[in-house]
């Protein structure tokens, strides 16, 4: 037959024909896969297809498969980069911190941490982000897009990581444990903050008052007590807050939502911290102890208040008259004397009071309730001072007395 007929017959063959010598050629790998002798030097194809046609004809757009996981890649270079996932090879090293990466592009993005470069700008607010993926996530703040949905409760999130953390509230998973006390956490960042309780480390200091904090977020929140900044407002009552978290907690007073339930008594709470403190009433745990008298408390707040009975410290001062108080609640109640505000109103006679405790005492006039009435009159005074053994029938009276005792021992 003629050479043209021979050529036509070869083109009809399902596979290409090669002349093989010693060596190995990537063109052949693309064309016939891995079924090539180990040592080929020169490969001649008789099918008359171009290099790009060879690659397309083999198995479609992704002609090379990873021998580890079977993933298809478009080219040898793509395959080589992909296989670093399996081999652990990281050829690109940061000259600043020594971190290594498997891709040159990953190193490039990492270097922006050192240079501070943020090349991607948000068209809505002008905020700059270090890469396109960070910008995409940020823009969801403006669009309100929350593409990640919880299959248990239907709640939506803007990032897959936030969804993953949320799902642990359903599963109860707490994979991060403290090696000193065994307490577990849902996030590694929460564990790191907790461990500072054991070390006593408070690396974040306020430049205005010198108070130190375990986390930078706590410091930022604290600074707002000096500036008075409250950027987060409730759309139902207009009340403003220094943090978005406090706003979220406040909004539950309108919705009645109490997502944290005690598994022993069923009582529900608006915050996980309130639930934790409540659960200690069942266990009897009081992990916060006074280093001066040894008295223990279920949470850090009551301990801090108690310690002021020893130090006499009154950090909360009235702007009007300069009078100082040991707690912000006491200051707030005092400020109502100047403002005339009486937010606690009796439902029966509409008389108003500055303190909730005063309202409760007044309501007993209507109900006739006498909670401290006993056959033995000495038992009426159930609150005893630890300094002088004097007793009181109301806890508020005892607290007032103890403050006087601590200042004038």
Automatic annotation (TrEMBL):
<keyword id="KW-0677">Repeat</keyword>
<feature type="domain" description="C2H2-type">
    <location>
        <begin position="204"/>
        <end position="231"/>
    </location>
</feature>
<dbReference type="InterPro" id="IPR013087">
    <property type="entry name" value="Znf_C2H2_type"/>
</dbReference>
<dbReference type="GO" id="GO:0000785">
    <property type="term" value="C:chromatin"/>
</dbReference>
<comment type="similarity">
    <text>Belongs to the krueppel C2H2-type zinc-finger protein family.</text>
</comment>
<dbReference type="GO" id="GO:0005667">
    <property type="term" value="C:transcription regulator complex"/>
</dbReference>
<feature type="domain" description="C2H2-type">
    <location>
        <begin position="260"/>
        <end position="287"/>
    </location>
</feature>
<feature type="domain" description="C2H2-type">
    <location>
        <begin position="176"/>
        <end position="203"/>
    </location>
</feature>
<dbReference type="GO" id="GO:0008270">
    <property type="term" value="F:zinc ion binding"/>
</dbReference>
<keyword id="KW-0479">Metal-binding</keyword>
<keyword id="KW-0805">Transcription regulation</keyword>
<dbReference type="GO" id="GO:0000981">
    <property type="term" value="F:DNA-binding transcription factor activity, RNA polymerase II-specific"/>
</dbReference>
<keyword id="KW-0804">Transcription</keyword>
<feature type="domain" description="C2H2-type">
    <location>
        <begin position="316"/>
        <end position="343"/>
    </location>
</feature>
<feature type="domain" description="C2H2-type">
    <location>
        <begin position="232"/>
        <end position="259"/>
    </location>
</feature>
<feature type="domain" description="C2H2-type">
    <location>
        <begin position="92"/>
        <end position="119"/>
    </location>
</feature>
<dbReference type="GO" id="GO:0000978">
    <property type="term" value="F:RNA polymerase II cis-regulatory region sequence-specific DNA binding"/>
</dbReference>
<keyword id="KW-0238">DNA-binding</keyword>
<keyword id="KW-0539">Nucleus</keyword>
<feature type="domain" description="C2H2-type">
    <location>
        <begin position="148"/>
        <end position="175"/>
    </location>
</feature>
<dbReference type="GO" id="GO:0031519">
    <property type="term" value="C:PcG protein complex"/>
</dbReference>
<feature type="domain" description="C2H2-type">
    <location>
        <begin position="288"/>
        <end position="315"/>
    </location>
</feature>
<feature type="domain" description="C2H2-type">
    <location>
        <begin position="120"/>
        <end position="147"/>
    </location>
</feature>
<feature type="domain" description="C2H2-type">
    <location>
        <begin position="64"/>
        <end position="91"/>
    </location>
</feature>
<protein>
    <recommendedName>
        <fullName>C2H2-type domain-containing protein</fullName>
    </recommendedName>
</protein>
<feature type="domain" description="C2H2-type">
    <location>
        <begin position="344"/>
        <end position="371"/>
    </location>
</feature>
<dbReference type="InterPro" id="IPR036236">
    <property type="entry name" value="Znf_C2H2_sf"/>
</dbReference>
<feature type="domain" description="C2H2-type">
    <location>
        <begin position="383"/>
        <end position="409"/>
    </location>
</feature>
<keyword id="KW-0863">Zinc-finger</keyword>
<dbReference type="Pfam" id="PF00096">
    <property type="entry name" value="zf-C2H2"/>
</dbReference>
<keyword id="KW-0862">Zinc</keyword>
